[in-house]
Protein translocase subunit SecY (Desulforamulus aquiferis), 419 residues
Amino acid sequence: MLDSLKTAFKLEELRGKLLFTLAMIFLFRVGAHIPVPGVNPEAFANLLTQGALLGFFDVISGGAFKNASIFAMSITPYINASIIMQLLTVVIPHLEKLAKEGEEGRKKITQYTRYFTAVLAFIQAIGMSVALKGALVNPTILNYLVVAITLTAGTVLLMWLGEQITEKGIGNGISLIIFAGIVSRIPSALVSIVEYLQVGTINILSVLLMVVVGTLVIAAIVFVNEGQRRIPVQYAKRVVGRRVYGGQTSHLPLKVNQAGVIPIIFASSLLMFPGQIAAWFQGNVVADWYLNWFAWGGALNSILYALLIIGFTYFYTAVIMNPVDMADNIKKYGGFIPGLRPGRSTAEYISRVMSKITLAGAVFLAAIAIMPNITLPLTGIPDLYFGGTALLIVVGVALDTMKQIESHLLMRSYQGFLK
């Protein structure tokens, strides 16, 4: 791998892309330490102990939330806007038509997503500044607006950085920003573990157990992310002029984990939000009842969390993968699945296969998500937010980025990362 990296830096074009990507990530990390005006960082950091939702935001933002920085909301509004736009593309005919118009249509949808991101970011920033008013130095209307506009500008800037990485760098920019934020927490997590060892809060066996579990989880994530069901597709021969086209056998790849980490984000946000609200109103009968029975990491919460992830996995996969369109595309280019008629029979077969492999992917995502609720009590390591979801994001982004570097190297007949 190190030899491949040396080879990559020898190529001028690829070296420029890698350096540009690193420069954009560096700007992100610098911005994560620029505080929002009018906010007390110490009071803001203390609010992290009042609920799992704020801790989750801090992991995604790479500590920017805890620092009360301009990137405190991270890229979350953009992710939410993108997901909502994908869902609206299915139900709104105009957006569906744009999605089928090729590059120009996708550009318009991307532009709509940018505007929607700014609106969502401002609404979320207003809600955050009001809900966390205890951290404001001077809680006036003007100060609320200053904080909200600053946080919104930070999210829009991150969105721009991500798009620049995608266009001029290597990998998916938005994913790399989340990746960089999570990875940046590793050094502080290691320091905390060393401190816990020194004071006797945990022992070396707990650390070894965490390393073993983490290694097994990473191996499982790679296995499932790369797993796919390949449906054979035969293309009939076509004679166009004096040339013969088709006649070859190909395959339709269906990934086991087609939805990625989106169902976990959906389910965690849905479950963490009521818990966060209840944490702000401790002492209230309803809030205390909810915290007692549905506390994050509890048995009922974990069961509900797993069921929501499985449901959202099926839902999101159904939105992004349409068996009817897939069957029509196969038929359009003169292809067919051996033993099946083109059209409806093919669509029904693809739908059945997708349901089976989606179940495997959904159960895997649920197991990864609730794994920290089981392993953390066993290891006894407190305040460790770097769990299965973070590993899933980090490993997935790393694999996709390596594949892009691999493709650049293979185009120039160099040996890449993957053999």
